[in-house]
Every structure is written in structure tokens, then in C-alpha cells.
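Minimal example, chain plus pyridoxal-5'-phosphate.
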Amino acid sequence: MSKDFRETELAGHRLSEETLMLGYGYDPALSEGSVKQPVFLTSTFCFPSADAGREFFDIVSGRSKTARNDADGGLVYSRFNHPNAQIVEERLAIYEGADAGAVFSSGMAAIATAVLAHCSPGDAILYSQPLYGGTDSLFKKVLSRFGVTALPLADATDGAAMRRDGEAARAKGRVAMIFLETPSNPLASLCDIRLAAEVATDIGRAQGHRPLVAVDNTLLGPVFQSAIRAGADLSLYSLTKYVGGHSDLVAGAVLGKREAVAPIRMLRALLGGNLDPNSCWMLARSLETVALRMRRASDNAVRVAEFLASHPKVKAVHFPTMAKPGSAQAQIYARQCTGPGSLMSFDVGDRASAFRVLDRLKIVKLAVSLGGTESLICHPATTVHSGVAEAERLAIGVTEGLVRLSVGIEHVDDLIADFRQALA
Ligand SMILES: Cc1ncc(COP(=O)(O)O)c(C=O)c1O
């Protein structure tokens, strides 16, 4: 293995992502032999010569026609690039099977910048339902002000339905993007990424411009689902969740093909959404344990979901392992995912019952967000999805009795004991 840990193979043996997360993209020789990378607390970088400065600027501003990506140039200024961001971008890209990556100051900064970089006035964008409340508000309340029409997909598991929605969208404008959130927040329902890529190709043939398939991979990536390997052009993350994993930072990322990521990096530099060095350092530390944490949380979640499904006061449990055998959801799960993750929702009938359960839990914490080491629970209709109009909320299944649960890495027997007493 080379000292700078850049090799992905060892004598013909392909190294696993779990091993690569411990050092890929960092050369200790460049930092006094320090085993761990320092936090590069600097706003700007010295150029080796005036001509190098000119060249680096040509690259980060996109004027250079020879550079493949602004990350290929030298370090310039921490709003454009910095070593701690580059390490996280390279490690996430290698985990996801992407060519390039860009980190952001939040998941919403990543999503908004990706959409704005690829959509122009007059375009249409198709999206799966339900979406995280922030993305939903961005699409419905903000994009229209920039002349972009956002249209829902009736069923992101059915090719014929997606093609019909694609035709309807083409009547409104050039379709620039198909945006999927899979699994969805809060229902953990799955979309078919491969099918969306096929539909994008068909739309591209008809309109002369292939829409990008962008997938919010926050709930299962990078451990249980690679959106890029499944056929997406862009994989988007709230790193605040499982990748950060300790409920102590806010961050986001875009991963994908180089040509799809390049305009997003360019816009990131102009909007100023790059992530700070300290948060990047914390993310690099978190990536070392992301597989361990996600696997333990997922094993716990399978047991908790089984307990909830067997409880007489629980009307329904929404979680990938609970899909009816042979259903579209079960088939997509088997083909697209290697584990169910740990985000689920369950229905206890009405708001009063939901609030009673939330108020009685002792170990599970009552807070929004998900993907941390500790279990978190919330009532989507009055918190994270309160911005979605009531009729629409009900139509997509976000009912008053629905509770969203992110299972953490506690001992599973303690979690089940907590739910048993709260539901009693
Ligand atoms: C699926 C999903 N995508 C995106 C976001 C937004 O991420 P952030 O809060 O890091 O901006 C969230 C936040 O809850 C989310 O759950």
C-alpha cells in the first residue's frame, strides 16, 4: 500500500471502502508525518509562482478547457477548495463509485446548488413523493420564482407512470432533472433509480437533452445504497445524518459524474456554500466508523420494526423489510439496497395517541433529524413536514398518527423496553 493511501488495489486485491475510509486521499508525509490530517485553518493558499496563480484561477473559474475539474488544480481560497474538503470529497466519491464530489455547508445547500446549477428558466423538474419537507418547500415555493416548474411523479416505481409524467412535463418545458428521494423521509418508501435512468434516456431522445437523474441518498448511502452505481447521475446527501452520524454537525454533499458535478462546484464557489475545514475534519473521522454505525443501527431497526409491527396499538410500520413479499417495494429493495437502514415511521392512529407515545419515551429522544448514534423520534405532520399543505400531506401518507423514528446504536433490548412502556 502506498504511503499516501491512494491505491485502491493491493497486489490485485480490491480494497474495500471500509479500509479506504481510514486514510484514502491523505499523505502523512505532507504534514510532518501526522497520522491524522491536521485541520487546515486558513482562508487562502500561497501560489508557488504568479503563473501558477493564473493557472489555478483559470481552473477554479472554469476558463481552463484542459482541466477536468476545479479539484484538479491547485489550492486557491477556502471558499473554492481546501485540503480537509478534498479528503472528504474523495472518500465519499470512492464509497459511492462516483468520479467527483463537492461538500456543502448543509444538505439543503447541496440540493439547492445542484438544482440551480442544472436548471434554467423555462425548465421542468420531476420529483418523487414524499420528499423531505425542506426539499418540498424549495421545489414548490422557490423554483417557480426562477421560472422552473416542479411536477410530482405519481409513482416512481412504475416505468409507464413515469413516462406519462415525463410527457406531461415536456408540455411545460425542457425536462432538466428527475429528482428522487429513496428511501423517502418519512415513509421510507423506495423509488426505482434504474427505471428513472431509462425514462431520462427516453425523454432525452425526444427532447434532445437528457435530464439528469439526481437521487437524495441520505437515508441509505454510502453503506447500503450507491445511487451512482444504480444509474443516477448525481447522488445528494445530507451529511448531517448518517455520515456525520453523531448529531454534532450540519453538512451536505453532491457526488457524481465529473461533468455533472463541475457546474455545481462552480456555483458553490459563487454562492459560498462550501463546508468549513473543522466540519470536514469531523466528517473524515465519522467516515472511519460509518459502516459500523449504520450496520448496528440497521440491525437494531429490524428488531424494533418487528416489535412495533406486532404491537396491537400500532396500525402500520413503514420500513423496507416490512414490504409485502413480491411487491414493487420488495423487489426494488432486493435489487437496489444491501440493507434497510434505520429510519422508519409507524402509525398509531391519531395525533393525540402519537403525542402520548412521544411524551412517554425515556431513552428515545424527542427531536428532529436522524442518523445519529442516539435514537430520535418526531411527529412529521407538526414538525419536519408542517410546511406541506394538509391535503397534500394526507395524500402522500403523512398522517396525523404518523411518528418518525431514527434508530440509533443503543442496546436494542433497551429500545424495545422503552417502546413497550410508552405504548402500554
Ligand atoms: C432526506 C433528507 N434530505 C435532505 C435533508 C436536508 O439536510 P440538512 O438539514 O443537512 O440541510 C434532510 C434533513 O432532514 C433529509 O432528511
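The CA atoms of residues 235 and 311 lie 36 Å apart. The chain has 14 helices and 14 strands.
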